[in-house]
């Protein structure tokens, strides 16, 4: 059964103009050659390699749609305009809406490029045929499959995308060449071993609020973010992570 909902937390920008592909290719973490097969998940980083925005890119013959968290759309448009210079690129608000769901994808729907367990995404004006779905189901799936969320596990000017799992989520390409923040990201991939990262934990007891600090043996270990169905997403220091960690009154264990 196909079920889904209109995702009002998302906004769509339209990138048009003859230079749109090269313009975006020089900025984002993923290779836009993938647009020929469906949506591409990517990020825009600071020159220091830290996370600024994450989004989905959807191509057509005439333009590229950018599916981004609504609260970030205006800031992303401003950032892209800063880089535009003399390129033949136009950035505008698109009329398309974002629908998400599980089950068989409706006509023109696309499998989520981060993880097929997250179902489908569809871009259009009219609603597809589908049964109504509770968006909370997606939150639980996101936790189960360790998918970070904009503004929650992904923190502007703080998060490094490899620590957030972007390689596993098909959000970065290490062969495409230069993009903003590429040097730092490549160095983290090839020259260092990650010491911190996003993991799933079990949460026993009353779940604390998002952003609660985690400790073990009275030492800071990391931060607990989204919790659903007794599981949570935590950004941890791997050298201190262990069973029986604490976050508020809750006990956490690696899951």
Task: Please provide a written account of the structure.
The protein is globular. The relative contact order is 0.16. The protein contains 4 helices and 16 strands. With 255 residues, it is of the alpha+beta class. The strands form 3 sheets. Strands 12-13-14-11-16-15 form a 6-stranded antiparallel β-sheet. A 5-stranded mixed β-sheet has the order 8-9-7-1-10, with no helix packed on it. The protein has a 5-stranded antiparallel β-sheet with strand order 3-4-5-2-6, with helices on one face. Among the domains are: 9-97 and 130-144, 2-Layer Sandwich (Alpha-Beta Plaits); 195-254, Beta Barrel (Elongation Factor Tu (Ef-tu), domain 3), CATH 2.40.30.110. The model has no long low-confidence stretch (mean pLDDT 96).
How would the blueprint of this fold be written?
Blueprint: E1 3-6, E2 10-16, H1 20-25, E3 40-45, E4 51-59, E5 63-69, H2 70-84, E6 90-93, E7 97-102, E8 110-111, E9 120-124, E10 131-132, H3 136-144, H4 182-190, E11 196-204, E12 212-216, E13 219-228, E14 231-237, E15 245-247, E16 250-254
Parallel strand pairs: 1-10
Antiparallel strand pairs: 1-7, 2-5, 2-6, 3-4, 4-5, 7-9, 8-9, 11-14, 11-16, 12-13, 13-14, 15-16
